Amino acid sequence: MINVLIADSHPIVRLGIKQVLNATSDFEVIGDASTTTELFKLLEKVSPDVVMLEMDIPEINGIATLRKIKQDFPNTKVLMYSGQSEDVYALSTIRAGAFGYLSKTADIDYIISAIRKVAEGNMFITNELAQRLAFDEGTQKPRRFFRKLSTREVEVLKLLASGKRNKEVAEGLNLNEKTVSTYKARLMRKLNVDNLVDLLQQAKALELY
C-alpha cells in the first residue's frame, strides 16, 4: 500500500485527487493539507510514502516547502505539481530535491503512474517535458535565459515578481537582506536587464507571475 499526503490550497482539487487515489487498490490518502502549517503538523503525526505538493501552496512557496521537507523528513518523497509551465518550474523543483513534477493538466493515469514511480524511489517527468528539456535550445529566448538560473535565483525572482520588497524576500527565504540584493543584481546580469521593471517583465516572459 502506498500512503499519500496531498497538500493543495483548493478543496475541490484535494477531494478529486483523494477520490481517484482511494479508488485505486494500492493507494491510501492518509491526510490532506491546505497550507504549509497544516502540512508540517500532519508530517509530525503521519509518515507518507509520497507527498503531492502544490507549487503555490500558501504561506511558504513550494520550493522552500520542499527544502524544509527534505531537511526535516528526509525519507519522505515529494512529487510537485502545478498549473504553471512545466519547462519553467520542473528543473527548479528537481534540483531542489523533488522526485518528480506534474502539470495539473496531466491525465489521471499520469498521476497514478507518477506516484507509483516516485514511491519506488524513481524520478518521474512526463514525456512531453522530457522532450522540451531535450530540445530547449530550439525554444523561445526566455527559456534559454531561464536555464542559467539557479533554484534559489528562481525563488527570489518569483517573490520579487509577486511584488515583495527585498526585506520581505529576505524574511520569506530566511536570507540576509544584503544577500537578496546580491541575488537581484545577479538576476539582472543573467537576464540581461539593468532595472527592476525590465527584470519583472522578463519574469513575466518566464511565466513567473
UniProtKB/TrEMBL annotation:
Transmembrane segments: none annotated. Pfam families: GerE, Response_reg. Coiled coil: none annotated. Residues 3-119 form the Response regulatory domain. Keywords: DNA-binding, Phosphoprotein. Residues 142-207 form the HTH luxR-type domain. SMART domains: HTH_LUXR (SM00421), REC (SM00448). It comes from the Bacteria. This is Response regulator transcription factor. It comes from Croceitalea vernalis.
